[in-house]
């Protein structure tokens, strides 16, 4: 489980860098709504990943103590994704919908890339 916390710590660092790039893109390019959508989606995507890490901790403790394991918070993460899309749809002049959806998936894309790099370093 410490490995998941390490990955989440790296994800937060990447998120702050990505959000800084989104702010620069929002301020200095004509694609402000696209960068705002990516930032919004990445924020909610990282929140979803944080929920997953917390629920995995609870799940791991429950299994190790022999108790019944609780859910992994799928409904909460799904609701968070719906909230991000609802914000983008209700404010289309500020947030681009497709870039918001892409931003929602960025933490998971970073997770896959990080695992590929980790496996490549081991071999």
Automatic annotation (TrEMBL):
Pfam family, one: ATP-synt_I
Membrane topology recorded in Swiss-Prot or TrEMBL: Multi-pass membrane protein
GO cellular component: plasma membrane
Domain of life: Bacteria
Xref: InterPro entries: ATP_synth_I, ATP_synth_I_Bacilli
Keywords (A to Z) from UniProt: Cell membrane, Membrane, Transmembrane, Transmembrane helix
Statement: the UniProt record of this protein carries the keyword Transmembrane: yes
Keyword tRNA processing belongs to the record: no
Residues annotated as transmembrane: 12-28, 34-53, 74-91, 97-117
Localization annotation: Cell membrane
Protein name: ATP synthase subunit I
Organism, as annotated: Metasolibacillus meyeri
């Amino acid at each position: 489980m410490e490995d998941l916390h390490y990955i989440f710590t790296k994800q937060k660092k990447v998120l702050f860098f990505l959000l800084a790039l989104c702010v620069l893109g929002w301020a200095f390019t004509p694609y402000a709504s696209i960068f705002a959508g990516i930032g919004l989606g990445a924020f909610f995507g990282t929140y979803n990943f944080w929920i997953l890490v917390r629920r995995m901790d609870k799940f791991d403790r429950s299994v190790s103590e022999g108790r019944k394991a609780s859910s992994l918070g799928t409904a909460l993460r799904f609701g968070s994704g719906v909230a991000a899309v609802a914000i983008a749809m209700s404010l289309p002049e500020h947030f681009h919908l497709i870039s918001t959806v892409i931003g929602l998936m960025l933490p998971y894309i970073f997770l896959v890339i990080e695992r590929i790099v980790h496996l490549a370093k081991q071999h």
